[in-house]
Amino acid sequence: MPVRTAGAWFPPCPSGAGTIHLVSKDPTGGRLAPFATTIFSEMTALAVATGSINLGQGFPDADGPVEIADAAIAAIRAGENQYPPGPGVPALRQSIAAHQRGYYGLDYDADCEVLVTTGATEGIAAALIGLCEPGDEVVMFEPFYDSYAASAAMAGARAKMVTLEAPDWGWDLAALEAAITPRTRVLLLNSPHNPTGKVFSLEELAAIARLCVERDLVALTDEVYEHLVYDGVHVPLATLEGMRERTVSISSAGKTFSFTGWKIGWACGPSALVSKVRAAKQFLTFATGTPFQHAIAVGLDAGERLIEPLRRSLRDRRDLLCDGLCALGLETFRPAATYFVTTDVASLGHTDAVEFCRTLPSRCGVVAVPSSVFYLDPAPGRSLVRWAFCKRPAVLVTALERLEALRPVGAQ
Ligand code: PMP
Ligand code: GLN
Predict the structure, then answer these.
(1) What is the pLDDT of residue 30?
(2) Which CATH architecture best describes the domain 66-302?
(3) pTM of the full predicted structure?
């Protein structure tokens, strides 16, 4: 079955073909003005326009397990095509509850503590809209996944950052303590972390949990890469003492099963918090694609049998791309998880990641993402570039061959 390129139906505006705006600003203003176009749409449009290999937007270029695809087709043929219950079909909510119990020992009532969302993106937006009042603050780590600041803005809340520092992506506890004020309502934690690939350690999680309890914060965790961990272990924040009752955990089937276009995500937490997420969700989308929910229930029930082969193959692809980037002379921060690797292009003499990524298609026929867009103040990420390795090995090999053009003249 041919694999379509994500974004191929979303061509760049003819007048702007091939130009990167890099998160265009809407000149007409408003609170969403800084978020006019996501970096991922821009970079995929650029890859399509220039015929480049897309190591920018994180989506696999091969489909997930056939038995999950077949389950979606069977659900469609069985007539599962009308609105499902708003909170999600019971079979999927039960599979999610069983997944949380089986992997992490977390018990959730499938009826009132589990909510199916249209991807993690909607789960995060609905959580921030449902949990924050205008003027509240949301503390998070930067670089951050791009939807967080936009979703906080939609909720009328203010995003406050604590910076993860390369090369180990460590952070300063005093900075986190200082970022939390009486207006802080939510601490948003993404582990495993996009774009760095960091898996927060138990020690780091314990410090975060202690602050959430002491300062009476709700924790919102984005765990979409929970199953794509190669070094270390993913520990959900909700499993730490005092955290289950104050945590909304978000995840998604897109990464785990390589069906990013199906947009099946979920939120788990105590009913008092999940009911607020549900209140927002029911007026954002009301409900989420019925046949895909049935199919993802099949995937979750199969568990490691379907998940482990993808994890193993992604670990190999991580090593392939990291070794190749490193051999080009790029400072490469090998990720412990996710399907992204960050490099510092200053090691090849490029000080501006935006400029580097803007010219990369014409120089090499490859697209990557400037990590500076994942910071509120781009300074710490000025020369950092993110590359996705969720592509077929042959595609990564070709990309690396093309990137040879980056090698300084005279270098071997
Ligand atoms: N959070 C992170 C950290 C991500 O990388 C992504 C990208 N998929 C999402 C959320 C969005 O997930 P979904 O496609 O399920 O909305
Ligand atoms: N999560 C994917 C990434 O980081 C992109 C998702 C999207 O395009 N919104 O590349």
Answers:
(1) 84
(2) 3-Layer(aba) Sandwich (3.40)
(3) 0.94
